[in-house]
Amino acid sequence: MRRGLCIRGLGLHGEETVYPILFMICTTHLLNDMMQSVIPAVYPLLKEKFDYSFAQIGLITLVFQMASSLFQPFVGLYADRRPRPYSLAAGMCFTLSGLLLLAFASHFGLMLLAVALIGWGSSIFHPESSRVAQIASGGRKGLAQSIFQVGGNGGAALGPLLAALIVMPFGQSSIAWFALAALAALLLLVRIGRWYRCRLAVAATRQVAISHAVAGPLPRRTVRRALLVLALLVFSKYFYIACMTNYFTFFLMDRFALSAQDSQYGLFAFLAASAAGTVIGGPVGDRIGRKYVIWGSILGAAPFTLLLPYANLTWTILLAVVIGLVISSAFSAIVVYATELMPGKVGMISGLFFGLMFGLGGIGSAFFGWLADRTSVEFIFRVSTLLPLLGIVAGLLPDITAGAPGDLIQRDIR
Length: 414
Fold this sequence. Notes:
Elements: H1 2-8, H2 19-41, H3 43-50, H4 54-69, H5 72-81, H6 87-104, H7 108-135, H8 141-170, H9 179-205, H10 220-256, H11 260-288, H12 290-307, H13 313-327, H14 330-341, H15 346-374, H16 377-384, H17 405-412
């Protein structure tokens, strides 16, 4: 009976989208990124308590982002070759340890170790969970990636809100309460691990022909050029988002004399809009093509980013919401587009682009922190607004179509 239930829930031929798994992986992504987003959300508190410079704030983010990014491609490549159903749960243990250490860290070295532990947890979580989402997609890869990604963006939006409600009033030690979210995610990831193990076991007993039906395989040179263009687009998007995520609260406090707590609500508005916008990119990409979603998302945000540093408070918040809605739809399309360029390497490609996202975000945070110390927060916002203009290079991407729905599934379980 258990085996029969397992088979009915798998969608082995790519015809069935396994929504329970997608919603569980979305929820764990929400919890994971909510815990991670607490790090930048408490920067004003840490800066005041320990008298950190903007450069030190940027270094904390750099360590976190680099710990998150460097291992992700290798984790993804290993998962493609030797899937480990319970690796997701193991990774969450690093995040749990890092949160508890961050809550009670008393000097800068322990801060760096704490965020590094959280980053290592992230480096295990993202490539493998993205791979699980695509296996459960039933061929609707854009939709699956958007469901997965909206959890992360939703969690990133909740972090500053919860920090404003919990950490700011009660201090650094209250970060320990977020360990409860890590425990909840751990339980869900164990359940996902059971499904994943069952998925692999059933696949191993079936002799299913592997379909190599990819519409018009592209030359390696074209694939390399497309990946380079995608990397440039990720750079433009996440350097800008690093500025918004890490320094928007300081911008609001400096320009409009908001309190640290009130500025968190402005950041929440931007991140919540980003979560909502994520839902759009994947399904629209399934319909009209991912290239056009990528192009419109990044370049389309440019007029609004250019206006933001010169607006009043009301328009600043409204523009931040519009920017979040527009620019956030790109990443799901980028990841799925890249996996279609290199079918059968979903884990490696997901790890590469999630790693690139975190790495560039960390470098961007450190760079803008360094620049803010030498100029001003307002100046870095005027500079960062130019970055979405790089979205014009999306026109260089080749037009591609996905392979057969079963192609991803059979390649991923071989």
